[in-house]
Design goal:
This protein is of the alpha/beta class. The protein folds into two domains: 165 residues, Response regulator (Rossmann fold), CATH 3.40.50.2300; 132 residues, Rossmann fold, CATH 3.40.50. 44% of the residues lie in helices and 19% in strands. It has twelve helices and 17 strands. It has a seven-stranded mixed β-sheet with strand order 2-1-3-4-5-14-11, sandwiched between helices. The longest helix is centred in the first third of the chain and has 24 residues.
Length: 370
């Protein structure tokens, strides 16, 4: 009997060890919340992130929230209920996730704000591109294209279209561009004919192409229908640039080429760049952003230091470490990893092919997503 009991206890111990080992071997579960599938770039971001994490052995849950903050709250809530180990969130509204962020904090689930900052203390980590620099590159492009430094008495007319006020990044984009150009506006070398230079005046809810189109048509009808020349229109991203370019094509009577800026490298906008309807886009390599996010997540989940030393794991990805620029509340700054964006024009479209994310069509004229 004693021998039986001893064997029975030994079996229980073996089974217990096996259960514990099995539990330890279970993959960590990562929740990825993207804002919408209606903009091309978020489809790319979501898929790159999911693929990267799954290839690294994690279980990845990917959701899109149709640009509805309430739905994103529910999506994140559901992931927390599934025992998620880490959240990666690109917020629809950077100030609209407090309830689920508080729950994440209570459940000790770390949060990485992806590309868009979230204004809540539960968010300790931020992976993005240097958003101010994105706008700065757009402003510098206009500055150089119009040769404003050597303009003399010559003046140029331009307009601005910014992004979604609910997106924390939108203000950084606009300010980066405006800071480059505001001196020329003050000197009268740039004339904003509509007079609309305040962010709230030029903002575009949900980065909507149709909203940007409608506003551009109204401005063209109100201020340029008399033959006034339009020289440049600074747009913060490609979806708004698409609307502005459409308005210029249909409602602007001038025969001059208008400089139109953008951001993201959407396929339709790259086509517009080839066709001369858009002049440039600031490209943010989302594959690189996923690489950095994965390395930050691995460090968080393994308990390794999340500091500047991580940059050595990013390979060829150019990235800065920052702990003082992006705050989630007064006095609380996110540990940030900021990638470097690239200006793309008709002259260097091959760059997008070289990095492996696009390919030429059969006629070698337009780019297609790989």
């Amino acid at each position: 009997m004693k021998k039986f009991v001893s064997l029975f206890l030994a079996l229980i111990m073996v089974l217990s060890v096996c259960v514990i080992a099995s539990a330890d071997a279970a993959p960590k579960k990562v929740g990825i919340s993207m804002p919408t599938q209606s903009l091309e770039r978020w489809n790319r971001d979501g898929e790159y992130l999911k693929n990267q994490f799954e290839a690294a052995g994690y279980e990845a849950i990917l959701t899109y929230s149709d640009n509805k903050n309430e739905q994103q709250v529910n999506d994140i809530d559901n992931m927390l209920s599934q025992g998620i180990d880490l959240l990666i969130i690109s917020a629809i509204d950077g100030e609209g996730l407090n309830t689920v962020m508080d729950r994440a904090a209570e459940e000790a689930v770390p949060v990485i704000a992806y590309d868009r900052l979230i204004m809540n203390d539960a968010v300790e980590y931020y992976v993005s591109f240097d958003n101010y620099t994105v706008g700065k590159l757009q402003g510098e492009y206009v500055e150089k294209a119009l040769d404003l430094a050597n303009a003399g008495d010559k003046t140029y007319n331009m307009e601005f279209t910014a992004g979604d006020p609910a997106d924390n990044n939108a203000g950084y984009f606009f300010n980066g561009a405006y800071d480059v150009l505001k001196g020329y506006i003050a000197d009268g070398k740039i004339i904003v004919v509509s007079g609309q230079t305040d962010f709230q005046q030029v903002a575009t809810n949900q980065w909507s192409t149709d909203t940007a189109l409608s506003r551009a048509q109204n401005i063209l009808a109100s201020y340029y229908a008399d033959g006034t020349t339009l020289d440049a229109w600074l747009c913060s991203n490609d979806s708004t640039a698409a609307g502005v370019a459409q308005a210029i094509e249909s409602d602007y009577a001038g025969d001059n080429a208008v400089i139109v800026t953008g951001q993201d490298g959407d396929i339709a906008n790259l086509r517009n760049i080839v066709d001369g309807k858009q002049t440039m886009t600031v490209y943010k390599n989302v594959a690189n952003e996923a690489v950095v996010t994965l390395e930050v997540a691995k460090a968080i989940l393994s308990g390794a230091p999340v500091d500047e030393s991580l940059i050595a794991n990013f390979g060829d990805v150019e990235c800065a470490f920052d702990t003082t620029s992006y705050f989630t509340s007064e006095g609380h700054f996110a540990t940030s990893y900021l990638l470097v964006p690239t200006v793309v024009t008709k002259d260097n479209l091959q760059y997008l092919v070289d990095i492996g994310l696009y390919q030429w069509d059969a006629d070698q004229v337009y780019l297609l997503a790989k």
